[in-house]
Amino acid sequence: AWAATDLFLGNISAGTAICAFLFCYCLLREPFRSGKFSSFNVYLFFLILPDAVVNASWSILYFQVVLRGGTVTDFICFGSIGVASFHFYSNVYLNTFVAHEIFRLVKASRQRRKIPPPSVCTVLWKVAVSYAIPILISIWGVMDMRRSATTVQNITTEFESCAIKSGSPTDDPVFTENMATLIYVLLSLPSV
Predict the structure, then answer these.
(1) Which of 70, 82, 84, 49 shows the shortest CA–CA distance to 6?
(2) Are residues 118 and 39 in contact, defined by beta-carbon separation less than 8 angstroms?
(3) pTM over 0.85
């Protein structure tokens, strides 16, 4: 039963990833031909990209679980969890910047004035910031070291093959489970 479920989820994730990558391609196809980029389309592209990558990652994970009889390699386990962490935090940070742009537009609209969209360079700078921080958080989260805030375990049981839990991975943890959870909640505060 688990193989059919994982195969189904793998196909759903693969289909979603393909659709997201196609949408990204469509967003950028015309601007590359004409040389004119809309900064809002650049935001959309970078909002969709983590969704495409995380779905591709999860489809690989599900297919490997099916092919290996319920287990995954450490690389796929740690990679999938790292990508999922990046996906979450990049969406939090980038949506914060997009919400600010929407607020600017609504405020100007209320005052009945037109404002120019942000420049593509400004958008790319914001994207770089909103991707760099989640990359660092993700690497920190999956590293097997005393100062890591999470423990990733590639375990093999009937119901799970790759698990993550809050707290440092050592017997003498730097971060307890509650401290690690609080840290990750605080890291997601820019969305508030």
Answers:
(1) 70
(2) yes
(3) no
